[in-house]
Write a structure and sequence with these properties.
Elements: E1 3-8, H1 13-26, E2 41-47, E3 50-60, E4 65-73, H2 82-98, E5 102-108, H3 112-117, E6 121-122, E7 127-129, E8 132-140
Parallel strand pairs: 4-5
Antiparallel strand pairs: 1-2, 2-3, 3-4, 5-8, 6-8, 7-8
Length: about 140
């Protein structure tokens, strides 16, 4: 693998492509793209120029912290450590722009173990987002 990253201030087509495959096609989410996309930092991970994973950083007033969201890895790249690499790159981007702070993630319950292995702690009860069970998790950088 030849992994590279690009950081965007606007939602790039590569991130739209990945999110459509993962969240719309695989998980059947309806409202994947939000009106606040232009207020976010978007990260896309590439392998040999092919977009394979994406994440988004956005400030959330409700939790008064930056949130990593829309975290998605193309199916054939899962279980290869790609997600852990992308989380680390995204956290490093947060630190470089905003310093050491609390960050949050609205994790699907099925991904809670992944985020726990990355140092996140659950701080809420389970709630539904797009009819999918989620849990709020935080980490201090």
């Amino acid at each position: 693998m030849n992994i590279t990253y690009k950081v965007f201030d606007d939602l790039p087509n590569e991130a739209k492509f990945i999110r459509t495959i993962v969240f719309v096609d695989e998980q059947h989410f309806v409202d994947e793209f939000e009106s606040n996309e232009n207020k976010a930092i978007h990260i896309v991970m590439f392998d040999e120029g092919k977009p394979i994973a994406t994440s988004r950083i956005i400030y959330q007033d409700k939790h008064k912290c930056y949130v990593i969201g829309r975290f998605a890895v193309i199916k054939e790249y899962r279980k290869l450590g790609i997600g852990k690499e992308l989380i680390k790159f995204t956290e490093d981007e947060i630190i470089s722009r905003f310093g050491h702070i609390q960050i949050g993630v609205s994790s699907q319950i099925q991904a809670q173990g992944f985020y726990e292995r990355c140092g996140y702690k659950a701080t809420s009860e389970t709630y539904l987002d797009q009819h999918c069970p989620h849990i709020w998790m935080v980490k201090y950088l």
